[in-house]
Amino acid sequence: MRQYRVPSRQLEKSMRHPVHSAIISLLLVLTVAVLPLPAAAEMRLEGEAAEHIRARLQGVRPDLPLIGLQPAPVAGFYAVEFEDGSIFYATEDGRFLITGDLYEITDDRFVNRSEDLRARQRADTIANLPVDDMIVFPANGNRRGVISVFTDTDCGFCRRLHLEVPELNRKGVEVRYLAYPRAGVGSASYGRHVSAWCSSDPQTAITRLKDGSSIPPQTCDNPVASHYELGQQLGVRGTPAIYIDGGRYLPGYMPAAELLKELGLE
Question: Which of 116, 207, 237, 254 has the fewest CB atoms in 10 Å of its CB?
Answer without folding.
Answer: 237
